[in-house]
Design goal:
Order of helices and strands: EEEEEEEEE
Shape: flat
Structural class: mainly beta
Distance between the termini: 16 Å
Strand content: over 45%
Length: 77
């Protein structure tokens, strides 16, 4: 999966990709209001200017967090 451009808000995001392709985010503004579940595969966050991925945390009780990272998961930036 590749997502590029615009502004995208996620409530929950699970990365469970065993097919060998990256899940890539580029050229946009991304926010996660809930939990990232990094189970398998890889997630590529492009570090180019103007691109951002924000974990939003508005309270001590939840939001903006990363769950346990699976052994087959890789994060690239």
């Amino acid at each position: 999966m590749t997502q590029g451009g615009g502004s995208v808000a996620f409530n929950e995001l699970e990365i469970n990709n065993t097919s060998g392709f990256d899940v890539s985010f580029y050229d946009g503004t991304y926010s996660l209001n809930g939990t990232l579940y990094p189970n398998a595969g890889s997630m590529n966050l492009d570090a180019s200017p103007g691109n951002s991925f924000t974990f939003v945390s508005n309270s001590a009780s939840g939001g903006g967090r990363i769950d346990e990272v699976g052994g087959g998961f890789h994060l690239y930036r």
